[in-house]
Amino acid sequence: MNYQNLFDKAIDRLHAEGRYRVFIDILRNKGAYPNARCLAGHNGPKPITVWCSNDYLGMGQHPKVVAAMEEALHDVGAGSGGTRNIGGNTHYHIELEAELADLHGKGGALLFTSGYVSNDATLSTLAKVLPGCIIYSDELNHASMIAGIRNAGCEKRVWRHNDLAHLEELLAADDEDAPKLIAFESVYSMDGDVAPIAAICDLADKYNALTYCDEVHAVGMYGARGGGITERDGVADRVTIIEGTLGKAFGVMGGYIAADRRIVDVIRSYAPGFIFTTSLSPVLVAGVLASVKHLKASSEERDAQQAHAAMLKTLMADAGLPVMHSETHIVPLMVGDPIKAKKISDILLAEYGVYVQPINYPTVPRGTERLRFTPGPFHDEAMMRELTAALAEIWDRMELRAAQAA
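RESULT FIELD:
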């Protein structure tokens, strides 16, 4: 068996399909987001502007967050000492869980090392403690949710994206006495559309199902206190479990769930993804704690971000660029070809100092490859006009307008 040859073929397939991923060598400039330095392939660091970060509000650079992390580092040191079972509950963890439970109006919350882990651990554990559970999953759910459902080993039904009629058809066809869980996201990050949460909860009530809402692209971003779409739409109390991340709008790292205390205790007690992994560093937790507290009280960052996203969409549309419809802060620009998407990204970085990563399969379906822009509160109008002019020039250079019109 020639293992090396098999590995080479696997990588060659990605190159042939134009979806081999290249990770940029980058350092962000503290206090000057979205400015950064690109280190690879240049004679010294090259100044660039970041347009695709999930640090949507720039909170990873916020003085309160940085100061809180520095204070924690000098107070308790770098690491947590192991799992929470072994190292104990660092008080920062207890404080943050209380803040997150309050943010969503729930009885409790539980921290994980990432949003991926929180989805995987929670979904897989829930189904195992509910004998005969059936999970109903939106077809565009994140890979971490799909992994959790797969690891649960239970019956699953995949419903067409945001299609309530199809969801009800599936619910009605199953045993009315079987435990049921409807899993969906609030904001779908590749298209920027939103789930009809209230209507999903109506179906959950009708068919006696639990609900699980992934709010990772919405927490910090929507609602008067940053509680997400569930807060904005006034339905947080109707959702059984709200899951979120601490690495996007909150700007640091980690994931969590917020739910009834009993459910939180079950996940804490049964989920291997929580029990057997080192807990988040208290330094990280201290930073998140400062971020959550700030965004509960301040809408300035959210308002500026929404205004800038709307402006960029308008500028792109006025320039004749194929900006996709999005009702949220996500600004997707359709390309439809992985090789062209990568080439556009490369030209932007090399010639214009603009960093945006191409989004290819399997993140999006084949033929819908795109560039995904996430303008934040610190991307000003001049930056957006320069970006739009650069994209228009590249679209003309590569003769993409005629190809996309055909």
